Structures are given as C-alpha cells and as structure tokens.
Automatic annotation (TrEMBL):
Residues 32-189, 285-395 form the Type I restriction modification DNA specificity domain. This is Type I restriction enzyme S subunit. Gene3D superfamilies: Bipartite methylase S protein (1.10.287.1120), DNA methylase specificity domains (3.90.220.20). One of its GO terms (molecular function) is DNA binding. It comes from Azomonas agilis.
Length: 414
C-alpha cells in the first residue's frame, strides 16, 4: 500500500490507554483493545524431535520443510502440521524469532507451533507476536531458551476480529511487495554471478566465453604477475595526539569499504597508519582469503588505514584496479588469495604481501578491455545498490507502520 493510500485510510487515534497510534477510520470509535495473556488467544505447543541424520539440506518432491529454533533447518520425510501457523523459536541466542509458515511441514522440539483460537486472525497473530520481541523473556545465559509456560503468560493486546483482518491485510500487502522487490534483488545478484563466470576465462581456457565485440579479434589473455600490474602505495602518517582521524575497514565477500568512528590520535597509540590513496586496490590481509578486497574512492579522502590494509595503484597502461578487484571476487581469485594466505583457519590465515605480489592470473593485455569489463560489472553493482536501498526503505516503512498499528509495548507489558 502506498503512503498516499495510507494517508487516506489511517488517521492518528485519540490518546487512550490501549489503542494504536494509527487506526483505520471505521474502528476509531470501537474502543480500546483488550489486554490478554497469550494463552487466552492461542495454543502453543513445541514440535517433535527429528534426528539430524533425517534432515536433508536440499528440497525434493518427497520432502517437507523442517523448522527449528532459527527458522528453516532443512527438509524431512515426515510432517507434523498442515496449514498456516506462526512458529516461535524457543532455543538459542535467537530464540523468540517468529516465522509464518504455510502448508505441510515438520516442526522440531525447538520450535513452538502457535495455533490461534477462535476469533483470532492467524496473520494478525503473526505480526503481533513478532512485535512483542519475545527474546526478552528468555531465561538462561549459556543457552537462552523460552518455555511454553513463560510464553503463555506474556501479555498481548487484542482488537476485535474485523480490525485484526484489516491490519493483517495492510501488512500482508506490504510483505508481498517486499518479497517481490527481494526477488528482483536476487535476480540481479544471480545475473551478476553468471556474467562474471562468462567475462573471465574458465579453467583451462585463455579467453572468456563472453567477449565484447571490439575485443573479439584481440589476442588471448596472458598470465601476468600482480607485481607487473600494480605498485604498492605507501604514505606513512605521523599521528598527532590531539587531531581526529578516521580509519577504514573492509568487509569480506567483496561487500566494500566501511568507515570507522572518528578517534583522537592518542587513542591510536603506537599503531602504524597510512594515508588512504584514492582509486587504489586495497585488501584486508587478515581476511583476504575471504575476499575482503575493495577499491578506494573519493569517499575515503583524508582517511587513514592501518598496516593491515595494504594499498596498490595501477601501473600506467598496465591495469585497471576495478578489473583486478572483480577478478579476485571470482572463484579463481579466491583460490589465489587463499594460496597467498598460508596458515590455519580464521585470523591465522594472514595474507603474505610478497606472496600476493607473486600471484599470476590471466588478464587482457589491453587495459581498455579490462576497463570495459569493470564498467559492465560496476553498472550491475549500481543497480544492485539501488535495489538494495529500495528494499531497505520498504522494510523500514513496514517496521514503522507495524509499530503504529499496534499499541506501544510499554502500555501492554506495564
């Protein structure tokens, strides 16, 4: 539902003890919602145990979804329920999470199946349970958990069924829009993944499957060493204790650069830091094996980086740093970063900079072809960023609407 439509159908409610901030016009004079414990509006029961060996990772025509404490766990040959139910995770750090499932499924003992009583709309019940933030009622520290006995006593707020239906219809339509936009985002990501597989040579090949027309008559790609394409950029910084500095960090899996909170120089201590170079290829040597690679931009102007983030500038007429970034986001690129990062798992797998500079990979000799490939993939990344932002806006809108269509939590639990 668009914001304009909401403006026409929702109006601020009068200040009352137990009514939502926004209420549909036809219910404004109905009166307050009723305060009730959950056991009076639904029946809760934990699911049934299923052995881990009987849970399959992938779906098949003869298997049913299996839900545990954190949502979908896999697929089983048996099912415990058929229909639409809110499921509450009851074990682990994420206990209290709520999922709405529909169809035939198996609920394990770590999921609480919630069956609405008469005059309670199942979709409305799902949204209300989700809003209650049930994790705050968990007990235990090492392994937090929720019992049905505790859940039964949690206070809820209940309008009459027609108002429940209206609220459920509003939020369900928004969820459908969110699902549609999420599918568009997944399609873009899948398209990019497939395109990358075609724009870089497959194993054993010296040309990519997909080549831009202007380069189809060009020579085969040649193996080139990183040191022949990039040159290390090092500009040490003398830290002044009373000046403010901002460091960069790099997310794994090619998810880009992030900016840390500004700090005073004195808090940096003896840490070796360097000026961030613009338009430089940069890695996180601790998580390079996890594809923590990026290219700096004007957004990082004036920032600093520790010795864990070596930067490289392109050799003139030899390389395009965006192309090199995208190469290291391929399967072959990840393999090479792992080779240059000896050691055990996690933080022990540190990239050796000399080993990195010795790496060789297939690259077009013409820098123009590198740039064309990089621009193609970058344009898809731009579309992904726009679609991600669109999806985030919808989710934020839903969150705000959800909070206004139900009475405030402190009014209910108070």
């Amino acid at each position: 539902m668009s914001s304009k439509q909401e403006d026409k159908t929702l109006m601020p409610a009068e200040k009352q003890a137990l009514v939502p901030k926004l209420r549909f016009p036809e219910f404004r004079k109905v009166g307050e919602w009723e305060r009730k414990p959950l056991k009076s509006i639904c029946v809760m029961q934990a699911g049934k145990f299923v052995a881990a060996a009987d849970i399959f990772e992938n779906s098949r025509y003869d298997l049913y979804p299996c839900y545990g404490g954190n949502g979908l766990r896999g697929y089983t040959k048996t099912h415990t329920h058929s229909g639409k139910y809110p499921l509450i995770g009851r074990q682990g750090a994420l206990c209290g999470n709520v999922n709405l499932v529909n169809g035939q499924f198996h609920a394990t003992e770590h999921a609480v199946v919630t069956t609405p009583k008469s005059e309670v709309n199942v979709d409305w019940l799902y949204y209300m349970l989700d809003l209650l933030n049930l994790n705050r009622f968990a007990t235990g520290q090492a392994q937090p958990g929720l019992s049905v006995e505790v859940l039964d006593k949690v206070q809820s707020f209940v309008p009459q069924e027609p108002e429940q239906q209206k609220i459920a219809d509003c939020l369900t339509s928004l969820d459908e829009l969110i699902t549609l936009e999420a599918q568009k985002l997944d399609t873009l990501k899948t398209h990019k993944k497939g395109l990358m597989q075609q724009l870089f040579p497959a194993e054993g090949k010296t040309v990519p499957k997909l080549r831009f027309p202007e380069f189809r008559e060009a020579s085969e790609w040649k193996k080139q060493r990183i040191s022949s394409l990039l040159v290390r950029a090092v500009r040490p910084l003398s830290v002044k204790i009373e000046e403010t500095y901002r460091e960069i960090g790099i997310r794994s899996h090619g998810k880009g650069i992030f900016h840390k909170e500004p700090v005073l120089g004195k808090s940096l201590g003896d840490k070796r830091v360097f000026h961030v170079e613009e338009s430089a290829f940069v890695l996180n040597i601790v998580f390079a094996w996890e594809q923590a690679v990026a290219v700096t931009s004007v957004a990082e102007k004036g920032m600093i980086a520790s010795h864990r983030f070596p930067m490289y500038k392109p050799r003139e007429h030899k390389s395009d740093v965006e192309f090199i970034k995208y190469f290291f986001l391929t399967c072959k690129g990840r393999e090479l970063l792992g080779i240059a990062s000896p050691g055990g798992a996690g933080r022990n797998k540190t990239l050796g900079q000399k080993e990195f500079e010795k790496l060789e990979f297939l690259s077009p000799e013409k820098v123009e072809e590198q740039t064309t490939i990089a621009c193609c993939l970058s344009s898809i990344d731009d579309l992904i960023a726009v679609q991600t932002q669109k999806l985030d806006v919808l989710k934020t809108h839903k969150k705000g609407l959800l909070q206004q269509l139900f009475p405030a939590l402190d009014e209910v639990q108070g």
